[in-house]
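Exercise 7b. Backbone tokens:
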């Protein structure tokens, strides 16, 4: 049996829909009931006659030719495929007998017959540009030993090995590549069905990819003949599943030298100007800060925005707000706080300047202005807390914390609003409506179990409020909190080990990687530090190892501080159990510190 005949036996309707569309396939089936289609084999091709139209089937099927004026995969090609698939064995036998009697002369006549009326179509094909994926497929095709002998496992391995990660990466742009890798973290959204044609259904994008070797025979429901992003993602999924590449190796491919995109001649003068101003502020001290300093910092922030320095712009705007607060004699705007802000930006300027001068990439330090949001697939989220925040950059709002109970990954949802121009303090927004079409408040959402479909999240696992997503509430999280026990840390040595593992690289320094559930064996030494204006206490594990926890006094933290003090009093009276702490871990002066977000009773 020829390779084309063997391949047609594996073709299913979903594959044909990927090559054409659902309407054409349905129309082809209907027309087959009333129209006669004849097929015969001519070498590595199958010749079809559908009414007055002639069809040549060849691999890849997307390159099949029809004499009708339709562009792409028309109904005549699909009808010929369906007929050849059903009548494949008998056609092959007939051709074999004909070859025995007619020899080479008979074969040439059949080929001449096939060429009738198709000359222009063939010329168009020969003049077409060649896709890199097709070149890869030709190399693989020369090494094949026969499709009939290929097992399902061999097909998956061949597809995974058929094209390199470097070639896949070249098929999409840098941002798209990063989005694909982010989506692959939730591989449970992919359904892989093995066979001679491997089907990959992607719940996150709604696309279905049919992969086979050579790769140009593959199809996607986006109808692209080239190596589209959906095929790239599907092939990468097979590479991961078959062990051709590991998750860590794939993650490494996101790193590349992008130093060339930074214009050193444009950026260095801006950095020098800001550095000189901040240097003067450090030399003269806070007492002699000019009245126009805040406006000057705002102008510098605009210049940094123009040069793509997102982190520096953000910090300069925050410093401008601090200067205004200091000059307005706000109680929490001390000279020490102001000096710390100036010093932090000054050091960042020195780092940026050094990297630029040496021609290195400054992307990590420069930051990004806008987070890209990608589909997450279905998430089973358990709301475990909410905190109110007031940022130094002039925003106020609430952040909700969710644990994905299948993967143990953390997600957040933030509602924020600018307070730059507010003259009157705003009310807390715990009564605000929840996103995703859920009829509840934010506070209720923060303590609910949620099935989120078609949601989106950025690289920091911050969920979008996109209207395309839908959420289903299935009870309060308090009803099933035992499910989180496997993610609770009780041994602080293992806690530190996992924290270090999560943050191995600078790009891992995302807030969701710092979130932990901790159940201490004891809480000790809770006191209020008058000098630092903060509540400090220690969590202890069963071996007496201590983890410092602290909350700096601020208006938005007052309720949390009172709640912790009441917890201490109840524990001293033996009228409370030690709760699980949801918190964010960071390092301060070489010591591991926990910022407590919520206490959870289990």
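Sequence design result:
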């Amino acid at each position: 049996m020829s390779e084309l005949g063997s391949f047609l036996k594996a073709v299913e309707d979903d594959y044909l829909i990927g090559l054409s569309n659902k309407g054409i396939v349905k129309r082809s089936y209907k027309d087959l009931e009333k129209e006669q289609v004849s097929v015969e084999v001519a070498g590595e091709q199958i010749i079809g006659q559908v009414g007055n139209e002639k069809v040549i089937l060849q691999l890849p099927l997307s390159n099949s030719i029809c004499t009708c004026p339709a562009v792409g995969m028309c109904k005549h090609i699909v009808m010929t495929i369906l007929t050849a698939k059903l009548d494949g064995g008998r056609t092959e036998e007939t051709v074999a007998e004909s070859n025995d009697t007619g020899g080479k002369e008979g074969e040439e006549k059949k080929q001449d017959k096939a060429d009738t009326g198709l000359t222009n179509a063939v010329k168009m094909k020969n003049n077409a540009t060649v896709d890199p994926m097709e070149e890869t497929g030709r190399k693989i095709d020369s090494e094949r030993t026969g499709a009939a002998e290929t097992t399902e496992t061999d097909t998956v391995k061949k597809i995974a090995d058929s094209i390199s990660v470097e070639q896949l990466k070249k098929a999409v742009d840098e941002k798209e590549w990063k989005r694909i890798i982010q989506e692959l973290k939730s591989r449970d959204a992919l359904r892989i069905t093995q066979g001679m044609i491997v089907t990959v259904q992607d719940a996150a994008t709604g696309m279905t990819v049919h992969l086979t070797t050579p790769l140009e025979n593959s199809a996607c429901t986006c109808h692209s003949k080239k190596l589209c992003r959906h095929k790239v993602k599907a092939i990468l999924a097979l590479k991961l599943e078959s062990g051709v590449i590991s998750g860590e190796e794939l993650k490494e491919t996101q790193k590349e030298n992008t130093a060339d995109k930074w214009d050193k001649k444009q950026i260095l003068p801006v950095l020098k100007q800001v550095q000189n101003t901040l240097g003067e502020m450090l030399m003269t001290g806070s007492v002699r800060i000019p009245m126009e300093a805040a406006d000057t910092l705002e102008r510098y922030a605009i210049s940094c925005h123009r040069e793509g320095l997102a982190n520096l712009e953000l910090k300069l705007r925050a410093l401008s707000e601090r200067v205004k607060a200091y000059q307005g004699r706000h109680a929490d705007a001390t000279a020490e706080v102001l000096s710390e802000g100036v010093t932090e930006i000054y050091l960042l300027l020195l780092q940026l300047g050094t990297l630029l001068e040496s021609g290195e990439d400054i992307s990590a330090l420069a930051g990004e202005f806008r987070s890209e949001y990608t589909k997450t697939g279905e998430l089973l989220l358990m709301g475990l807390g909410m905190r109110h925040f007031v940022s130094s950059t002039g925003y106020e709002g609430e952040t909700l914390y969710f644990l994905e109970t299948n993967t143990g990954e953390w997600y957040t949802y933030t509602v924020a609003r600018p307070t730059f121009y507010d003259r009157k303090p705003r009310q807390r927004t715990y009564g605000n409506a929840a996103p995703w079409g859920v009829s509840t408040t934010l506070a209720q959402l923060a303590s609910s179990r949620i099935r989120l479909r078609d949601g989106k999240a950025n690289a920091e696992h911050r969920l979008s409020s996109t209207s395309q997503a839908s959420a289903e509430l299935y009870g309060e999280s308090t009803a099933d909190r035992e499910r989180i026990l496997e993610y609770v840390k009780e041994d602080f040595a293992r806690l530190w080990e996992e924290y270090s593992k999560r943050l191995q690289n600078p790009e891992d320094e995302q807030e969701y990687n710092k979130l932990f559930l901790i159940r201490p064996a004891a809480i000790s030494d809770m006191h209020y530090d008058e000098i630092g204006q903060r509540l400090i206490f220690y969590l202890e594990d069963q071996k007496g190892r201590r983890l410092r926890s602290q909350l700096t006094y601020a208006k938005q933290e007052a309720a949390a501080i009172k709640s912790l003090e009441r917890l201490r009093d109840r524990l001293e009276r033996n009228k409370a159990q030690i709760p699980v702490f949801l918190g964010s871990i960071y390092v301060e002066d070489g010591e591991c510190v926990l910022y407590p977000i919520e206490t959870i009773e289990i």
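Instructor comment: The radius of gyration is 32 Å. The longest helix spans residues 88-115.
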